[in-house]
Specification:
about 450 residues; alpha/beta; Rossmann fold; 3 domains; seven-stranded parallel beta sheet; 18 helices; about 15% strand; globular; binds adenosine monophosphate
């Protein structure tokens, strides 16, 4: 972390005061490098990945540009996924707490269109959304950007990878030329440079060096012959390390699903996360993994972006990533916040070209280690600590986390520390409980009433 305090910036005093109540004292490197340009009104391209503090960098910039009294859309933030859009909107609301009456609205695909039209009719200052849905609102005339002054592209590389280039360009065509455009991306392929040239004006480029601890994460490379041996390698590594939370990265959706199926057949607690899941399954998968009732997630890079997990115990690359920056991005998710994580990659001779490129990038020679002893295959598989219960009632039925906690821990209930994360969605909710008290929890929730009603409760089985 750089040592410059936020107070060195020319920021609205209300924003500054709020930052210190949030505990943000000094700027992260990306903030220190980009904010002076952003606050000067210049277009900025920045290398920003999740965890770098990028949201606050553009969030403070767009809040500075905002005239709250003018109740029109003045900012648009585009994100590749709904999860990221939700996280960004939450962070902007936190940053905006010092200023009254700022209205932030999310417009994402995968949810009904109609209610969004209703919300738009009520007005908003800031829109955070996914390109397809925002474009649809613009085409149907339910959203207007003629008073926009700040346009942000978050995780631009992912948006382009997901095929949103056309939508992004169409959207940019429908906003004033006179505006500030900020683009954040973890990697900088040619397409990013091309789109920046089309939609930005003389942007400055801010590149933050990789953090030292990221490069020093202990990485292991294991030599494998073919895909069959890859699955055996996964089993060996999982059975040896027995990590609580592991993400296995695959390069394609099909592969992610196949690997998840195979591990499942071997008895592991595992789910696949990729773009072919519908929104409900995707939400449920993310909830179950992050509340520790599923130990392993097999994911594609795009799908894993929305993952809201501070620190994974292990990251395993089933195949090495196409690009060294993506590789670092993957392994950077392990062992954050001082805890030690494991980063393993399976490599075969066919990938030697990518391995050499990665070695050059990391400035080290990469040599395959032998796999753990085959005897680990005799060890039993491990179970996650928690189990997830689904409640057929959510925000629309006014079910709140406190109600669920209360119903579980009341008379003859389970202890508060046996309850894990609670996630409430529109029409349903999930609660994690310690595996050993699942039956008591089911019974207690089933008998009890939430908001004076009894909702159907079920255990989500592995
Ligand atoms: P992001 O990269 O935007 O996803 O942010 C990562 C996390 O760091 C978020 O939880 C922020 O709330 C937090 N954060 C951002 N900037 C700062 C800062 N200057 N000091 C402390 N925490 C921060």
């Amino acid at each position: 972390m750089s040592q410059s305090p936020f107070s060195t910036l020319k920021l609205n005093p209300d924003l500054l005061t709020n930052l210190s109540t949030l505990g943000y004292e000094t700027m992260t490197p990306i903030q220190a490098q980009s904010l002076p340009h952003i606050l000067a009104g210049i277009d900025v391209i920045a290398q920003g990945k999740t965890g770098s503090g990028k949201t606050a960098a553009f969030g403070l910039g767009l809040l500075e540009n905002l005239n709250v009294k003018r109740f029109r859309v003045q900012t648009l933030v585009l994100c590749p996924t709904r999860e990221l859009a939700d996280q960004v909107a939450t962070e902007i609301r936190r940053l905006a707490r010092g200023i009254h009456n700022i209205k932030v609205l999310t417009l994402c695909g995968g949810v009904p269109f109609g209610p969004q039209v209703g919300s738009l009719e009520h007005g908003a200052h800031i829109i955070v959304g996914t390109p397809g849905r925002v474009d649809e609102h613009l085409r149907k005339g339910t959203l207007h950007l003629d008073e926009l002054n700040t346009f942000v592209l978050d995780e631009a590389d992912r948006m382009l990878e997901m095929g949103f280039q056309e939508a992004v360009e169409e959207i940019a065509d429908l906003m004033p030329k006179q505006r500030q455009t900020l683009l954040f991306s973890a990697t900088f392929p040619e397409e990013i440079k091309a789109i920046a040239q089309r939609i930005m004006l003389k942007p400055v480029m801010v590149k933050v060096e990789f953090k030292h601890d990221e490069l020093s994460i202990k990485q292991h490379f294991y030599k494998v012959d073919d895909n069959e041996q890859r699955v055996t390698a996964l089993r060996l590594l999982l059975l040896m390390h027995r990590p609580e939370s592991t993400v296995i990265f695959c390069n394609t959706k099909k592969e992610a699903q196949e690997v998840a199926n195979e591990l499942h057949d071997f008895g592991f607690s595992v789910l696949a996360l990729h773009g072919d899941l519908d929104q409900k399954d995707r939400d449920q998968t993310l909830v179950r993994f992050s509340n520790k009732s599923v130990s392993i997630l097999v994911a594609t890079d795009v799908a894993a972006r929305g993952l809201d997990i501070d620190s994974l115990d292990a990251v395993i690359n089933y195949h090495i990533a196409r690009d060294p920056e993506i590789h670092l991005h993957r392994i950077g998710r392990t062992g954050r916040a001082g805890s030690k994580g494991i980063a393993c990659s399976l490599i075969s001779d066919k990938e030697s070209h990518k391995v050499i490129t990665l070695g050059n990038y990391l400035d080290r020679a990469i040599e395959g280690e032998p796999l753990p002893s085959i005897n680990f295959l005799d060890k039993p598989v491990f179970e996650p600590e928690m189990a997830t219960l689904q409640i057929e009632g959510g925000k629309k039925q006014k079910v709140r986390p406190g109600d669920i906690l209360g119903a579980l821990t009341g008379d003859n209930g389970i202890a508060g520390n046996q309850v894990g994360k609670i996630n409430v969605f529109d029409n349903w909710a999930y609660v994690a409980v310690k595996r050993e008290v699942t039956q008591v929890a089911l019974k207690k929730l089933g008998q009890g009433q939430l908001k004076g009603r009894s909702f159907r409760i079920r255990l989500i089985r592995d």
